[in-house]
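Why do we bother with a discrete structure alphabet at all? Because it lets us treat a fold like text: something you can write down, compare, and reason about line by line. To make this less abstract, here is a complete entry for Protein F37C4.5. Read it the way you would read a sentence in a foreign language you are learning: slowly, and without expecting to understand everything at once.
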Amino acid sequence: MASEEQEVKEVELELEECLVSDVQVFLDRAEVTRVIEFTPLSAGAHTLVVKGLTDKADTDSIRVKGFQDKEPRAASAEAAEEGSEQPVDAPPPPGAGPARGQECVILEVSFDVHFRPVEDGEPGKEGELRSKIKEIAAKKQELDDALRRVKQQDGLVQDYLKSMLVSTASPTAGPGASQAKAPPPVGTDLDTVKQLLAFHSDTASSADNRSRELQEELRGVASELDAARASLEEVAWQRTQRSRPIASRDVTIAVNIPTDPLPGQTIKLRLTYLVKGASWVPTYDIRTSLGAKGEAANMSLTYFGVVQQSTGEDWRNAFISLSTASPASGGSPPMPPTRQVQWAYSARPELQQQQRHVRRGSQRRESRMTNVAMPQQAMMPLQRELSIDALEAFGNATSGGDRGGDSDDEEEADMSFATMATAGVSAGAGGSATFHIDRKSTIASNNKEHKVTVAIIDLTPDIRHFCTPELEERAYIQARATNSSPYPLLESNRVSIFFDGNFITTTTIKHTSPGETITVFLGVDSQVKVEHRLVTKSENTGQDGGVFRRQQQSQQLFEYRTILHNTKLDRAIDITIVQLLPRSTTDKIVVELLKPPRREVPVTGEASGNSAGEGELQSGSVMQNKITNNVVFDKNIAPKGKIEIPFSFSVQWPHDAGTGKVEVV
């Protein structure tokens, strides 16, 4: 006996009926999770059709999962593991009691574009709208006429009163005589004048009230007329579109319900897909204050995520999470190329001179734009800069002198603990992290910025000063703190710096993982005076050697004096001073450090193999940076104290080598 074919029930749902529960926003896209809910009437095969998926959805990413009921949203990976979801078709665990939702089995998930005809509009709708517009227009004309009559009546009353109360020229006066004034027609009876004025007041008040009523009615009729015309245009547009079907991007889900559902039991599924047109960027507010005398400085970093989306769908009342992963990045590394060595062709001398002028002009422009908040030293290219992490190593410079082998432990003991707010964080593969915002948000598809707070991190910074006297006679305040929170700080150029309650500047920070160091500049300290002078610049031209004398080399001598004055009354400062020692580009030119003496200036990286020099600059010491060749001093200046730093070097070369002339650039 042939088995009866089971009828497949089809259920159609608009996408808006499937509420958005969670959205995970990546740096260049988002993953949207919607809840599909329907109530089956009987057991058997069902087909769910979710209509109207946005055209920015990645159809290859569509996934459907089931869960039995609403679950509390986990704020971390550990919490998620404890409350892991159960598949719809899984039986309840022993002792858990009956399942709260109807069981079903997901058989197939597919995507297709269906072309659906536009439903016919209401018959006679266009004619009704045209008749309505005609009636409203006639009513508007009646109100316009009534308002015009009120204004005419008020004008007649005004003219009558003017003729009764205003004196006129006497008609008996001759052409050569002066114009005599006739008394007003109302005469000199004050009671009659009062009656006329009272009449005018009553009629004018009545006209004003009637005029306001008519104007209010006209505004309402005009709005009604505009709405009717807009409806007529919509009906006319729909009539022209009925010949063309509308494309509907639909997700079809085939499920099987093994048992008859109880009354009121529902099926709940999770529809997940990726959409383009969504992104988020990190922004930060860093607020630092020195505190009272004897108290440690404090730093508060507010971590924001700015979300934008134009995906074509609104995310209403959904949990938002921000991921640092970048799905668009390639999963495979680039193929290593083969490098070649060949003869170098130097640029023409005039071209090199032009390039030097361009670099100098660029540095001057940067100085004018940013020298209030950030020293030029921090903006230079690598050939000339002394990197903030490498040049000063001020995180290890203490007034107590050298640290022992337990310096890392001591620094970790002093590390401040972060106070987090608003978001949980879970770690992912490849060093990525996901921030779970604990409250629901609504983000419309309008590409406007929506700011959510990720965390508020409290840190204890190390405050010191920094200056490069040859570039700027200014001392900058510099703060450095360890990221002791579990949050990785993404690279951002939207960092607002506040110092002692005052806005200083906007700056950038690099990617900073937990445990790494954050370094920011807090602007110029006007209470620290810097004076830099070129004391001596001399040049001696060399001579050829002879039988009884050696060849004399050409030489330039540069001698500088830098004076630093701490004008603060009650606060000593630690300051890093960078003196620019030029580096020779050829072995024919020799640069020799004279003051401080070469033997007293260690080169970073020579003792420990650390070319960056971290941990080698101690309080009150001096060193030479191996990367930039510059000389770095660490000094402590007492309140009202003043120090002088001598710095000199010589440049020597054979007078007959090259062009015979040397310049320091």
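What the structure line is telling us, in plain words: The radius of gyration is 42 Å. The chain has three domains: 9-117+246-276, 125-170+187-240, 284-326+365-653.
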